[in-house]
Amino acid sequence: MKKRIVLFGANADGRKVLQNLKPLIWMDQVEVIAFLDNDKRLSGGKIENIPILNPQKITELSFEKIIVCIIFGEEACIQLQGLGVNKVKIEFAYEEPLFSKQERVLNGCRVGKYSYFKPSTLLVNTQIGNFCHIADNCQIGLSGHRVDLVSTYPLSYHFENVINDPSEDITANKRRMESQTIIKNDVYIGEGVTIMSGVEIGNGAVIGSKSFVNKDINDYAVVGGVPAREIKLRFSVQEIDRLLSIAWWNWPEDQIKKNTLKINSNVKEFLNEFNEEE
Ligand SMILES: CC(C)(COP(=O)(O)OP(=O)(O)OC[C@H]1O[C@@H](n2cnc3c(N)ncnc32)[C@H](O)[C@@H]1OP(=O)(O)O)[C@@H](O)C(=O)NCCC(=O)NCCS
Asked: Which of the residues 15, 85, 205, 278 has the least number of beta carbons within 10 Å of its own beta carbon?
């Protein structure tokens, strides 16, 4: 019998899952009956004639499985269960926690608590602090081939019977491969950014979309371009010093919860409040 499926998330990630389901749809094994999305602007729209609904509408649908296509899977699961969906009906498109409230290690990269990135983003030999958000299509910690040899092409794979193991490749840029990329805390990385290995990105830095970053970036700097150049500092040097010593990203969970709106508010108000507390 054809399985009725609901996809949670009508953004690019939801669309991608729909594409992946196409062979099963063509073979009449699966029917995607709706997308759910919390974004009010999307409700009422359609993707390939499939309606996009507010998650509240789940109670009106008859289905076998919901696939959560957004990276905040844990939250979606709680929301769906709150709407009466049985946990056994909920599946996740991503096995790895692209978002987690806990620090975790993914593909050998330590990723701090609450930091998240999109499935199209690649991390190599990188360490990420807390509360960083990283958009789609970023390549972080790239190394590549040496340019001082006659050819950069890995000839040994084909002419020396060397097993196709990139770590054995004599053309690999070992210096870059071995240097870890560090992204500190509260960093915002826009869409399509490339960060070369060994670079250190300071706390509170912002990297504009499509930038190519090959040098360290100062705390609270906004950078952009190819190669990335500092556009501005987000705050005055004195304010940055205060923010770095406050380091809200290391506060205990309940202190962040109590001050959420203050952290997302004007820097002067925030610093007034926390200077006074000293
Ligand atoms: C970097 C960014 C945060 C700056 O935002 P902002 O503070 O509002 O900056 P402005 O638009 O005022 O631009 C300031 C200057 O930076 C330049 N600039 C902005 N983004 C840039 C980028 N990605 N690359 C190069 N230069 C950039 C602007 O041209 C402008 O230059 P000018 O002063 O010579 O005119 C923003 O442009 C950006 O790239 N955001 C990420 C968008 C994205 O990826 N979204 C998807 C995931 S959420």
From this structure: 278
Question: Atom 5 of ligand 1 has which residue's CA nearest to it?
Answer: 208
Distance from residue 92's CA to the centre of ligand 1 (Å):
33
Q: What does the chain come to in residues?
A: 278
For ligand 1, the distance from its centroid to the CA atom of residue 206, given in whole angstroms, is 9
| Residues forming CATH 2.160.10.10 domain(s) in the chain | 107-233
Residue 202 CA, ligand 1 centroid: distance in Å: 18
Mean per-residue pLDDT, 89-94: 94
With a Cβ cut-off of 6 Å, ligand 1 is lined by 135, 190-191, 206, 208-211, 222, 224-225, 231
Ligand 1: centre distance to CA 233 (Å): 13
For the annotated catalytic residues, the residue numbers are 145
pLDDT category of residue 278 using cuts at 50, 70 and 90: very low
Assign 3-class secondary structure to 214-274. Answer: CCCECCCEEEECCCCEEEEECCCHHHHHHHHHHCHHHCCHHHHHHCHHHHCCCHHHHHHHH
Contacts of 241 (CB under 8 A, 6+ apart): none
Minimum CA distance residue for ligand 1 atom 15: 231
Taking only the tens place, the pLDDT of each residue in 25-52 is: 999 999 999 999 999 999 999 999 999 9
Query: Given the CA of residue 222, which atom of ligand 1 is nearest to it?
Result: 1
* 97 pLDDT tier (thresholds 50, 70, 90): confident
CATH class of 107-233: mainly beta
CATH 3.40.50.720 maps onto the chain at 3-92
The CA distance from 163 to 210, in Å, is 35
pLDDT in tens, 188-224: 999 999 999 999 999 999 999 999 999 999 999 999 9
